[in-house]
Structure prediction request, 779 residues.
Amino acid sequence: MIARSPAMTENDIVYVRTAPSRALSPPITSVGFIGWLRANLFSSWLNTALTLLTAALIVWLVPPIVRFLFIDAVWSGADREACLATGMQEAGACWAFVHERLSYFIYGSYPVAERWRVNLFFALFAFGSAWMLWLDAPRRGLGALFFFVVLPVTSYVLLTGSTLLGLSPVDTSLWGGWLVTVVVTAVGIVTSMPIGVVLALGRRSSLPVVRFLSVIFIEFVRGVPLVTVLFMASVMLPLFVPPAWSPDKLLRALIGVMLFAAAYQAEVVRAGLEAIPRGQYEAGRALGLGYWKLHGLIVLPQALRVTIPNIVNSIIALFKDTTLVFIAGIFDFLRTIEVARADPKWATPVTSTTGYAFAAVVYFICCYLMARYAASVERRLARADRR
Amino acid sequence: MRRDPAAKGSFLYDPRLRGAVYQIVLLIVIALLAVAFVNNVAENLARNHITSGFGFLHATAGFDISQTLIEYSISTSTYARAFVIGLLNTLLVAGLGILFATVIGFLIGIAQLSANWLIARLARAYVEIVRNIPLLLHLLFWYYAVLKALPDFSDSYPLPGGALINSRGLFLPKPIAQSDVMPILIALGLGIVAALIWRYAAWRHRERVGGRRPIVWPMLAFVIGAPAIAFAVFGLKLDWSLPELGRFNVRGGAEILPEFVALLIALSIYTAAFIAEVVRAGLLSVSPGQTEAAGALGLRRAQVLRLVVIPQAQRVIIPPLTNQYLNLTKNSTLAVAIGYPDLVQIFAGTVLNNTGQAVEVVTLTLAVYLTISLATSAVMNLYQSRIMQVHR
Prediction:
């Protein structure tokens, strides 16, 4: 705009901008989608080359997998004939096989008429875990009582049977599939938590004998592979007890898993205990609390809370380790798939891959969800710390 | 804790006395349990007519082993020999597994922090997918779905260089020396020593004077040059034994078992995902200010990484990295699932079945892994106390 006062000569004309000029939009190459591409994928020659290489890798890998799993897959059929390659058509995943053997993968050889008991057990376990995992749930103390006392007793009666309640006994050699995987995981969690807490307290105890024994146990078990612990449980355990008490195969595996998980859980709990400031102990003692009240009312509730993410991570490890119980001769989820895939009725070139793909998806979903949960609790605790 | 003599309560409340009583009771319970176990074991063994003791180790083993790194014969070798062979097979697969897992793990770990969106995402996906699937499933997949699904030996798939691959394994050309190899091996050893001395001298020079001397190229020159000179002087006649298709099997060449390959791939891929997380956490633990300051001093990106970031990240990375190495070694016992002749498969499997010496066999097997673990953590503690001193 040109400002002009009444008494103005030619020389007085000045240019004064009184309003800001319109902001230019940034160049199209530095914002929006193109800008994002340039910044994140093509920022330099090297980066461009790497991007193209990676994209080629993805194009090379992903379409065949998708084609195998979905497009070429056989969704229904009665036996192997359905899943054989026919002339031009290449055979994809044989989902018909998984569909037909699904009940075996879930229940093993558990009697069909009694499978409602397994379903009830799954429901109770899911209910108990949800109560424990939901940090804002009402009455969590009651939840712990349910999970660590009521659930194990009920499940034991439900699954093994009791003539008193009219439930026909089911031998553990008939158990299999997902049922065994859940039972081993559940027993691992339920028994390893209390033992782990005791061992962790023992390792920090002022009594030298208790401390020494705890350290020996923890370091011994953590120093050897689970495979050898299971070997020990399945061949040495029967030697340790009189023949009349000789545990069945499932129990041997459970004892092995329990000892193994307890040692790892002890270290997780110890990490939690070490995160508690000294002041908490001192304040507790100043209130006149004894050892058990101090730990039960003040230290452990805080220690276990801060270490929830680690506990969940060790549960994930335990869950993956349950696949090793085949060493003790019992049929967990992965083992039932191994058995089914070798069955001549479904023997095709794609059966193994299909079975493994199914197992991988199931394990991945479970582990991934648990890992997400652990991460979310970690974020929540970090928020609480900042406050 | 000092007690006030005036406020002497009942001796039942003396913490020291109580502690002593608890410990004595605990010891008595454990001693009773131990006695009961030993009695039961003795009874059970007597019932099955098994004599205890390690004498069986000197007996002839009499079973075949599919992969032997040292001499072994069915008819004359002892159980002790079988034990050593199993141990060597375990160490072989664990050693190579550690090597591959480290390389893949570091690449993926660094890729996770890449500025390139696609690469970072892909690396992240690798870690999430691989570590959320049980190792046994990885192993079974590679063994049964990939390697065992290869064509039968009569339709062997030829690889470049005369190698063959089929469902029975990988068959590589095997060099057979027709003349003495020793001079070249000695030269290689001397070359490595010279390279290390060069590196040490360069480091001393930098500490004293400050100047930089080239390190990598001279070291390579020593390691490659020394054997090359020995080769030029002494010469070497090599015959290659090429694998050939026979009527019932593959003849000649060096055979690599599919069990070994499957175990190696599964262990490397699985452990690499965990190592990648360790590396990522280590690199993230170095504050961005360090990188920025190094950049402001004019260091190039590679130098920033090598001189500033890695030395600091190392402290965070090495202890959990060692842990992963131990895990890999312990996980190599999964060999038992596919029949790779490792320590557990040979000793806790075949030898145990043949002799029935459960207590001795399991004890020896546990002792091996325990020794490896405890020795490694002892070294780690030493390392950490040194690092801590530097840190303070």
